[in-house]
Amino acid sequence: MSENATYRTAGAGSRDVAVLGGGSFGTAMAKVLGENGHTVHFWMRDEQQAEDIRLHRINKRYMPGITLEGDIQPTTDLADAVRKAEVVLVAIPSKAFRAVIRENSQVFRDGQIVVSLTKGIEEHGFKLMSEILQEEIPRCRTGVLSGPNLAAEIVNRELTATVIAAKDPDVRRAIQELLGCEYFRVYANVDVYGVELAGALKNIYAIVAGLANALEMGENAKAMLITRGLAEMSRFAVSLGANPMTFMGLAGVGDLIATCTSNKSRNFRVGYAVGKGKKLDEAAQELGQVAEGIYTLKLVREKSEAIGIYMPLVRGLYEILYEGASINAVINSLMMAVQNSDVEFILPRTISQ
Ligand SMILES: NC(=O)C1=CN([C@@H]2O[C@H](COP(=O)(O)OP(=O)(O)OC[C@H]3O[C@@H](n4cnc5c(N)ncnc54)[C@H](O)[C@@H]3O)[C@@H](O)[C@H]2O)C=CC1
Ligand SMILES: O=C(CO)COP(=O)(O)O
């Protein structure tokens, strides 16, 4: 899309929306909403950052060079932002998600629409963000936004599609109307658990893909890793109750392609740095932004072992990142493993072939 293209609100007129979280993705969604003619109460915890955005219309730390247009009002007063908003979008990293919502749970209203944009899993209890919303603010109507949504592309108005997953049709419709525009399409799904889990799981395979790229693996190898990643993540998610067809959609295969093939993905970049010999801590430190896959990997490895789901890529990546295994040794062991069926929803993985 050209910089000079005109933008219009996709549906109803101007609405008040709160975006919680002043990082890359919060900024990207605030920008879409602002351009769509909505009033954005953009909450962040750092007053200096809020003041800077107020004055210069640029989030210097997370989106340098990107001007925020429209009625975007940076604030450090979360209660005020939520009270003024009809709809709340939450883009806070999974590690801080519950604490922020719990601390402010009283300010959310009955029936208020609250949607998670976060692609991660809570450390204790393996809770997804929509489950945290239901526990902390059960009187709200909740949903999840996920899909191939690299923030760095959205802020440049590059064509993008996303998925709003919610049981309540009003939530789905509201988000489609608020965010949809010439460069941003919003598809709908009712499989909240599948869409949300897909978004969290793909971060693991983006790290694997970054590693493969650092090792200059060929296209066959990269395609194998992405496709076997898809098999592994859908096997795991389906065992927990997700719909396997969700993984054929934007939130599954779509997001996997975007993040496993682009160094705009922070998870991919962490994998790439480790593949080039950096220690995990060093790679994460240099990134300076969240790479949820680092934490998701630990939780998924633990959970898959507890429930007996075969996830060789998760196990291999865990050994590399957390147990100091050599990358070559892990690759050799993966290549020597039993050769299973391709699509196990057609030919079961474990029967004799
Ligand atoms: N950046 C992207 O392309 C996309 C990111 N996401 C997801 O969005 C979520 C947020 O990620 P980004 O904005 O990209 O991360 P980021 O690393 O760019 O920014 C994180 C933001 O969270 C804030 N934060 C951290 N701890 C906090 C706390 N305790 N209280 C309040 N604010 C806190 C930081 O100050 C920062 O503003 C992640 O779960 C990510 O997976 C989803 C789709 C795309
Ligand atoms: O989820 C994302 C794009 O869909 C962003 O991925 P990263 O967090 O790896 O940058």
From TrEMBL:
- Residue positions binding NAD(+): G21, G22, G23, S24, F25, G26, A151, R266
Molecular function in Gene Ontology: glycerol-3-phosphate dehydrogenase (NAD+) activity; glycerol-3-phosphate dehydrogenase (NADP+) activity; NAD binding
Q: Which residues bind substrate?
A: K119, R266, N267
One Pfam family of this chain = NAD_Gly3P_dh_N
Q: Where in the cell is it found?
A: Cytoplasm
GO BP annotations, alphabetical order: carbohydrate metabolic process; glycerol-3-phosphate biosynthetic process; glycerol-3-phosphate catabolic process; glycerophospholipid biosynthetic process
The reactions it catalyses are:
sn-glycerol 3-phosphate + NAD(+) = dihydroxyacetone phosphate + NADH + H(+); sn-glycerol 3-phosphate + NADP(+) = dihydroxyacetone phosphate + NADPH + H(+)
Catalytic site positions: K202
Q: Which domain of life is it from?
A: Bacteria
Which top class of enzyme applies to this chain? Answer: oxidoreductase
Identify this protein by name: Glycerol-3-phosphate dehydrogenase [NAD(P)+]
Natural source organism:
Marinobacter nauticus
